[in-house]
Amino acid sequence: MQCAEGQPEVCANLGLACDAETNSCVPCEAHADCGDAGCNLDTGECLPADKVWWVDGDNGNDSSPGTEAQPFEHINMAINAIELGGIGTIHVLGTSTPYVEDVGVVGLRTVALLGDGGPVVSGNFSYGLQVQTSSTALVDGLNVEDVAVIGVYCDGGRLVLDNSVVKHCASIGLQLFDECEATVRNSIIALNGGALPVVEPNILVWGSTLEASYLTAVSGLGDLEGSTLDCEGESSVSIRNSILVSAGTDSVECPDAVFEYVVSDDLAANAGPTNESSGSFDVMWFADVDTGDYHLAGDGSTTPFGGVASLQPDDLLTDIDGDPRPMNGFVGADEP
């Protein structure tokens, strides 16, 4: 099928993207390929162009229709606008204060939650974002911070977490449970799991699947002594081009995980020819942990993370800030 320049709707009607170079309809590879709609990154299909909503916590109103001109105020209101078992895209705008709600992708829905790196969800009670059984959340540029319990919780659903930050949650930052299938790319998951009486890990994979690339995972600063990655049950974990470090002990408790091009201070059970030891943790590796900035410090030259990565065909070509990645650049979410 052919699509003329400026007429992407020809392809959108087929659930495809319009390739500007060839003027042909092709599967989408990124949300930007689908106009206002999101991309189902598993199938290569654009989500429906007529099922798109906007949320603005500062200027929205839940009595509004949820259009770009008249957005909702709360994310859950937009999710509830998608019928049970339905598919839709939600654009979440950055606000002056966090979205104080437990965002739930439930009811067999497939939802793209798209931010620009600015929106922050802080949760209202038990989690910032939950994905339930047989539901799918395609998250890009949405941050989850300072949640009273769990940051992101996937229970038997499908989660894609791209270009996002999960930090400073009282319990686990990212918990995958009961056959959740998760892909995490270009994301920072840091300093979660130490504010409750029982210290929890930063990332917990329990009977689930995790594939991660260009992940920055940090734990164990101050009184936070939990591991940065913990696996329980029959879990499948594959991580590449990533940082897994902790100022505490036993950073990685996931002996069956497959690591490639990973830099960690704890490779005792996950050594391999492409992985490298970071040596003892140094807070100066990161821009400003006091303010929660886990980008690499300066140009990254004083860190052990440069020149280790190996860009793979299905990796994102830019970092968490949209900067291009070289073939053999820095591991972790940030390419300084």
Describe it:
With 336 residues, the chain is mostly beta strands. The chain has two domains: 39 residues, no CATH class; 246 residues, Pectate Lyase C-like (3 Solenoid). It is built from two helices and 26 strands. Strand 1 and strand 2 form a beta hairpin. The longest helix is centred in the N-terminal third of the chain and has 6 residues. The mean pLDDT is 92.
Shape: globular
How many structurally independent domains? 2
So how many helices? 2
End-to-end Cα distance: 41 Å
Number of strands: 26
Give the % helix. under 10%
Under CATH, the topology of the largest domain can be stated as Pectate Lyase C-like
* CATH level 1 name of the largest domain: Mainly Beta
> Based on helices, strands and strand pairing, what is the structural class?
mainly beta
The major beta sheet can be summarized as:
13 strands, parallel
Name the CATH architecture of the largest domain.
3 Solenoid
Q: Give helix and strand order, one letter per element, not per position.
A: HEEEEEHEEEEEEEEEEEEEEEEEEEEE
Mean pLDDT over the full residue set? 92
User: Would you identify the regions where 5 or more consecutive residues have pLDDT less than 50?
Assistant: none
CA radius of gyration: 19 Å
What proportion of the residues form beta strands (DSSP E)? Answer: 35-45%
